[in-house]
């Protein structure tokens, strides 16, 4: 564990709050210290209020902010005087605490203060850092963890037995510090939870954290519990097709139990496969979370194997048993797993979105390392189920559940779009992402792979006329997100205008191969996935005005789109029993695509004796049809509005007299 402090970087921050931001970001850079909103930091600053009175203000990390990206706006300023009064109360409910913290903030626009705000207030230090350091948790989560922590740190830290975060933890820490703090104290260890460091400057506090965690790492090394054995498990290439099928089936079963569509993210690297193939997996993985904070994301236990129904039954039994001890009525969460460990699949994580599934993966990969190090140190031992249940069904989390809020239309659903790097295809990607879908974009242009850098998009370079390439692309889609719900067939080519007597066979065959045969292959290969879609599969084909109203010089293009339309009609007849609905759009004169260069536009407008603006709106409604318009309708056809529609052919052309 090394300090990342840089005098050059620190010089950019001129105030205590600025330096608080800087060292918070340093902590956030290291995922072995904090992950996805974990941990919190604070600083106490004296300020004059609007009427000129001097007040001590605690700036503490706000809810919803991540240390790696936090800014000054991410800290909630709370009046210290009131916090210290609250700390003297005998009882304070979570809802009361939240209300008191909000009413004592000096900025109404600031985020909600951390639930550990009172704890930060009672610690008698200017700067306070709190992390969930893997190395420390690997030691605390053992049968004799307390003795080991005492051996490592002596009087340098105050050790606190596990208490649920919030007011009770703050009161216990206040009591402990009153009797156990010494001149040597530079930190605090919360058993099965994490570690704190203190300092009078941002740098001192940060570097004490680094030093304390380093001591834990050194201890693990000295006790041969640091280096995890090199994995040897390998997923054979020939098994990948079977794996993709298994993942898609697993997603369907998890979605059914959850009662909403989910994204599954598969992680079959050697380390994850090796963990999933351990002989003692059922023992070491069924102890509980590394820290209760993780339960909101991962649930208490992973599913080992693929029996989703059995997991759900066990979860309901766990809820029934633990809820009896709850002091307030609680509502059961969905019983679906969030982490799945399997000998063939390695680590599979579940989320309501691709981002959620990735967060679960990040957390559990660190959890696997913690479990293995604790095991080498003498045996992994998590908190009792009752303690973890208390966090999972925390009053504050239940309040969020009751408040709810509408999910995006396509939350947990997966779409595949062809020809996705530009034009209508890219616009479809944007429309799908906007509605909460995870999207796989295929395009022959390698730029597709860098189209977006976000967890809910995967770009795959793929020639849709190559059957093997399509198979590999679908494997990537299933590995990334778990299956397929929506397919938008957009990729196509429009050859240079040519009369039939001059049309060569090669051109005809190429157009048919890309505009028709590739779509047949895609539909055929996607069918097993689409019929597993929790809400039913949906296919939208981008046809053409040339289907109902062909023009001269476009025989190959018009015939290919007409054949595609007929293919969609037959598929609608054949696949309706599998809850797959199929519709076709017929756009015309969509000029913001790669086909239409400025030169071509100018030439065609001149041919008709029109200006470019007149040519773009040369339809009955005098409107310009854009890729966005086509995409919005294509994606809407995948939504609830068209739930009772299949085999439709809808023009989107501003009104064309020949079509009408």
From TrEMBL:
Gene3D superfamilies: Class II aldolase/adducin N-terminal domain (3.40.225.10), NAD(P)-binding Rossmann-like Domain (3.40.50.720). One of its GO terms (molecular function) is oxidoreductase activity. PROSITE patterns: ADH_SHORT. It holds the Pfam family Aldolase_II. Keywords: Oxidoreductase. Residues 19-220 form the Class II aldolase/adducin N-terminal domain. InterPro entries: Aldolase_II/adducin_N, Aldolase_II/adducin_N_sf, NAD(P)-bd_dom_sf, Sc_DH/Rdtase_CS, SDR_fam. Belongs to the short-chain dehydrogenases/reductases (SDR) family. This is Bifunctional aldolase/short-chain dehydrogenase.
